[in-house]
Amino acid sequence: MIKKCLFPVAGYGTRFLPATKSMPKEMLPVVNKPLVQYGVEEALDAGLSEICLVTGRGKRAINDFFDISFELEHQIAGSDKEKYLSSIRKVIAEARFSTTRQSEMKGLGHAVLTGELLVGSEPFGVVLADDLCITEDRGVMAQLVDIYLKHRCSVVAIQEVPEADISKFGVISGVEVEPGLYSVTDMVEKPEPQDAPSNLAVIGRYVLTPYIFEILRHTPPGKNDELQLTDALRTMAKTSKVLACKFQGRRFDCGSVDGYVEATNYVYENIYLRDQAH
Q1: Which of 117, 147, 171, 191 has the greatest CB tally within 10 Å of its CB?
Q2: Do the Cβ atoms of 200 and 186 come closer than 8 Å?
Q3: What is the average per-residue pLDDT within 204-223?
Q4: CATH assignment of 4-277?
C-alpha cells in the first residue's frame, strides 16, 4: 500500500502578489478552505495518511494550519461557530505531517528530490495544491492509486488541453493500453504547440516509485535551467514503465487568477451552497 503523499509547497506564488507577499499561495481560500486542505483531503481519501510537506521561507502558516489552535478552540468552544472547524479537525486527526525545507527554488524535480528525506524508499503520491481537482466519485489521487496497485509502476494524471495552452504543461505521447490509460513513450516539458507530441497534458497529480529519486540525481537542468520532473519521468518511461491516466473529474488551475476565480465560483455554487442546505 501507498501511505505517503508529497506536497511541494515552497513556491513564491508571484502571480498573486501582493496577496502572497507574506501568505503562502497554498493558503489562498477557495470559499472557506485553503487550497492545501483540499489537496490533503484528496490524499486522505486515497488512503495516503502520511503527508510530507516540502516548504520554504515564509511558509510557516501551512504548518500552523495543520496544528491545533488552542486559543481559537477555547474561544469558540460550545458556540455555533465550532462547526466550522469540523473539516480541519478531521484532517488533523487522520493525517500525520512531516516537513522539510527546500532552500532554493530549482524546479519541481528539485522539490521532489528534496522530499526523499521524508519519503524514503517506498512509492508515494505527489499533489500540487494549486491544481484543484473536483470529482463526483473517487478523487484523482484515488484513481491513480488504483492503477498503481494493479500495474506497480509510476502513474501520472493527464487531461486534454487546447493547443493555445499546451506550452504551460508537460505533454506526453503514448500508446493507449486501456480506455483512458496510456503507456508513456515520450514526455516533453512545456513545448511550443507545433512541437507538442499530443494534446495530453500532465497535471499536478502523480504516483511515483522511489526509482524517481535516482533518476533525478542524474538529470541535468532542463527548461528554465530547472530540474524538471518531466525530464526524469521521460527517462523513467524509456527504462521502465510509466502510465498516464485521463482522470475522471474537473481540474482548476488555481495558480492563475482566472482559474482561481473560476474554481471559487464553481465550489461556491456546486459544493458550498449544497453543504449549507444540509
Answers
A1: 171
A2: no
A3: 94
A4: 3.90.550.10
